[in-house]
Amino acid sequence: MKQYSGKKIILFLSLITMIFSFSLSPSEISLKGSVHEDLSCLDCHSEKGSHFSYNDKETKEYTKKVNCQECHEDTYSLYITKDIHGIALVNGNKEAPNCQNCHGSHNILPISDSANRMSRKNQPDTCKNCHGKAEFNKSQGIFQRNMISKYKESVHYKAINVGKKGATCTDCHNHHNIQPSISADSTVRREGIMKMCSTCHKKEAENYIRSAHYKALEHGNYDVPTCTTCHGGHDMGSFKNQNSAKGNLSQQSVCINCHENERMMARYGLDTVPVRSYKKSYHGLARLGSLDVSALCSDCHDPHKAFPKTNPLSRVHKDNLVETCGQCHGKVSKNFAKSYSHYKLLDNPGTKIESLVKNIYIILIIAVIGGMILFISIIWLWAIRQKIKNQRKLKQIRRINKFERISHIVLITTFILLVITGFALKFPESFWAKTIYSVGLTELVRKITHRISAVLMVVDMLVFGFYIVLFKRGRGLLFEILPKKRDFTDFFKTITFLLKGNKRKLQPRYGVFNFGEKFEFWALIWGTVIMLISGMILWFPKLIPETWPSWVFSIAGIVHYFEAILATLAIIIWHFFFVIFHPDEYPMNTSWLTGYITEKEAKHRFEEDAIIKMKLANKKTKKEKNN
Question: What is the mean pLDDT of the chain?
Fold first, then answer.
């Protein structure tokens, strides 16, 4: 039999004892460094049990073993009688947190320890275990979303992160006595939130208590702002530290959100004149336009001491205006300070003079600019008549027949109506849309006009389609307007000519239709098909099969809108240039009116073969008419 030395036996027994002692004394390991380091296992895991009970066997066994009440009787009593979590726990809500969920079990560290679950920096992560779940919040009737992530972006948590003072979850919501916001004892109730904020922001709270806003709040007015109305809740921001343009604009929007609401202001005998006049003033225009430095609402009206202007303490009281304006403008006179006001009394002599000057200029602008437009229009129309008159004196070639001109006029008319009635819906606040709405273009009229114009355009395009298929001249036009290989060479020849200068030998001449005209024609066909399909989906959504995905409707709206923008810009920029503003065409290409171009123009633009084709097509047309 193998013999073991006494030393080995002692070592083996010591190892067994150590393992056995670990299994019996977790406090020596897991409680080390915790606030309960001096306690024994039985101080917590006794047979007295807990008042909490669940159907779940594992949880029930666990809660029987732990009883925090033995040492924390007052806190425990407060928690289960006042705290929304404790009350829910007692009533059998399994999702409600118990002591261990927030504070831990064996590893409860001192609150000053940065690793403590409820330390100022770790609180949001502890609360996140429940309130970071959208479904949980929804199930508990909590309507705010992303509370934890928003809080971590707030000025409070950012301050804590850098070792400064900042509010944590329990600073605002309390601890062991957390009440729902609707409760009269809640620290975040609308009427009492200012008191909670005053623990850190004493001066601001004192000023707010003296303001008109707080006086109204005391009387149960829920329209007036509180701390969180302006600064936010979990996403609390500091306007003081927001020197950026975006921050300043948001600061301004806080006031505008309420004071621009006509219905809300009317309830208290107020109006929206201050906001409307501010937006039209230099301060408002500079702020809303370039976001540059200019006066905000809070610069003239103290944000916390919101006194009416009749109050001697108000910054905009007549005796304080010079000082208020002087904050930005330096030393100013009383008249300068009075020159800026949201309101003008009707019996103010200055107002009558301002109104007179304004009306004179309005009449002057209408008369002068209107006269200019009228005179220029007469010159332009005269130039068109002269061009047509001069063309008739020369040899001409028919470019467009009567049917083609009529089709083109219908296309122009329906296109313009579609653009006006379509964009009037998309941009109802634009000055031109307001103008046509004011003269009787109701939504019903707009909608009917838009749809009739669309139908007429489609009919016009279909008739023209039959024309280019059934008639010989039409088939000839279709053949000529089909894309060909020479269009690419013509394009590069044109670019070369334009870049190298006016060398006659380099000037290209084209077929019956050049590459630009072909591009326009096929873009028109493509755009019409796209607008027709998307428009029909928007017009008759009930006809769309139920098997089609829902995004079809939103895609149809996007396509219809952006295709309309593309078509409108293409007509204004490309088509109008080549038929109106091109130096060779100004004041206008008149062939769409007369149907003719001169032989001189034809020789300048077309190659000889194209001119022969146009002449032959016209002869055939005349012969067909005679027959």
Answer: 84
Alpha-carbon gap, residue 108 to 508, rounded angstroms: 89
Q: Note the pLDDT tens digit of each residue in 312-343.
A: 888 888 888 888 888 888 888 888 887 777 76
Quick one: pLDDT at residue 350?
A: 58
DSSP string, 386-427: HHHHHHHTS-EEE-S-HHHHHHHHHHHHHHHHHHHHHHHHH-
Name residue 76's amino acid.
Y
Residues 575-614 pLDDT 10s: 999 999 999 899 999 999 999 999 999 998 999 999 998 8
**Residues contacting 53, CB < 8 A, separation 6+:** 60, 63
CA atoms of 259 and 223, how far apart (whole Å): 11
Residues 52 and 157: their CA atoms lie apart, in Å, by 34
Q: Higher confidence at residue 6 or residue 448?
A: 448
Name the token pair of 249. Answer: 């604009």
SS3 597: strand
- What does the DSSP assignment read for 433-481? HHHHHHTT--HHHHHHHHHHHHHHHHHHHHHHHHHHHHSHHHHHHHHHH
User: Comparing C-alpha atoms, which of 627, 625, 621, 624 is closest to residue 595?
Assistant: 621
Query: Nearest 5°: CA angle at 417, between 414 and 421?
Result: 140
**What is the gyration radius of the CA atoms in the chain, in angstroms?**
41
- Residue 562: alpha-carbon gap to chain centroid: 18
The DSSP H or E segment spanning 65 is helix 57-65
Is residue 238 within 8 A of residue 247, CB to CB? The reply is no
Domains annotated for the chain, with CATH where assigned, are 120-235 (no CATH), 257-343 (no CATH), 395-626 (1.20.950.20)
Q: Is 108 left (phi over 0), alpha (psi -120 to 50) or beta?
A: beta
Kind and range of the H or E element at 598? strand 596-598
Nearest to 256 by CA among 297, 287, 286, 212: 297
